Structure formats: C-alpha cells, structure tokens
Amino acid sequence: MLKRIVSLIFIFTLSVGITNDLLIASAKPTQAFSNVDLDKLKTVADFKLLTPSYLGGNYKLEIKEPYPFVISPSVSKVRLHFFDESGQTYLFGIEEHKAGGYKVNRVVTNVDVRYRTSKTRTIVEDFKFNEHGETININGIEGRFEPSANHHILGGYLRWVQNDTFIEMDSKELTKEEMIALAKSMR
Fold first, then answer.
1. Helix%, strand%, coil% for the chain, nearest 5
2. Predicted local distance difference test score (pLDDT) of residue 26
3. pTM, two decimal places
4. Cβ-contact 110, 119 below 8 angstroms
5. Quick one: pLDDT band at residue 35, thresholds 50, 70, 90?
6. Could you read off the pLDDT of 138-182 as tens digits, one per residue?
7. Could you report the per-residue pLDDT of 119-134, keeping only the tens digit for each?
C-alpha cells in the first residue's frame, strides 16, 4: 500500500513537472539561435539597436520584445534576454528604445475607499531618463547604476544613452563590473 502511494506521488510530480515545462516552452518568445533574427530586427528598429560585442562563453539569446516576433515596418522598443548555455539561467536583459521622442504609458489607479470604487486610466508621457543611482563612465558617456533592492544580490540596473538610444541592462547574476564591461562593448 505504501509503495502504491509513493508511486502515485512520484508519477503525479513527474507529470506536473513535464506539463509545466511544456507550458513554459510554449510561452517563450523567439529564440535567436543565430544573429539572423537580430540582424533583421536592427534593420526595422526606429533607433540604433546596439548589442554587446563581448560575451564571455556561450549563451542563448531570446528576443522578448517585440512579441510576437513579426518584422514590421517599424519597431520602437526591443527587449533581449541572455541566458546561460543551458537556456535555464537568466544572466541579463537589455531594453532599448529612442532616447528622445519616445512615449511611455503610465497606468494610474485611483481607489475611493469610501464608495468602494476604483478608476484606472493610462497617461501617455514623454520618456524621461531616470538619473537616480551611482554615476558610471561608459566609454566617456555618463551612465547610472542602481544595485538590486537586496544589496546582497549581484547586479542591479545600469542605464545610459548611446547614439540617441536609451539602454537599460538588468541582472541578478552578473557583478556591477561585469555589467559595465558588457556596456562598454555595446556596438
């Protein structure tokens, strides 16, 4: 009887794991196993799309945004995710868009506790560079670094403007120095 229960628990755990892996795999954006997709994306971006020219070791690249990955006449924002060779560990991400003339949507929700109502609206604003954080020199360009909320975790957020392109890199796996080295290699 105990063997049957243990067997059923094992089979259930295994099937749930397989199902979750399939769901995760089916929800993944475009895997760029070569630079072909990235090269196509560079031609349709309405800004100069920059990528690291130095990446130590092997990695897997995922084009997270635009999603779905459809080459359209104009792409205004790109988000790239870099994973380790196995594709399981997220190393860092890079988000890019025009530094000037780019609009962002900010969602504001007002809650009225007295009448138990809420109202949500979207405000479209001009993009503004966040100047919080430590000043970092990236090839003569002033950037900003903010550590992760938990200062014991590696990485954080590094942002700067290069060739009229806003770039923000995030990581919880890389050190600040590794992030700066990658930023300096952006071409």
1. 25, 40, 35
2. 31
3. 0.73
4. yes
5. low
6. 999 999 999 988 766 788 999 999 999 999 999 999 999 999 999
7. 999 999 888 888 999 9
> Burial level of 59, CB count in 10 A (0-12/13-18/19+)?
middle
> Token pair for residue 8?
């059923």
Tokens representing residue 99 in the block: 């530094």
Best CA proximity match to 39, nearest among 29, 51, 55: 51
Structure tokens at 173: 């796996």
- Could you check whether the bond before residue 68 is cis, i.e. omega within 30 degrees of 0? yes
One-letter amino acid identity for 106? R
Output the six-digit token pair for 140.
């003569």
**What whole-number distance in Å separates Cα of residue 104 and Cα of residue 125?**
5
User: For the chain, how many residues are written?
Assistant: 187
111 torsion bin: left (phi>0), alpha (psi -120 to 50), beta (else): beta
Q: What is the Cα–Cα distance from 172 to 182, expressed in whole angstroms?
A: 14
Q: For the purposes of burial, counting CB atoms within 10 Å of the CB of 9, is it exposed (0-12), middle (13-18) or buried (19 or more)?
A: exposed
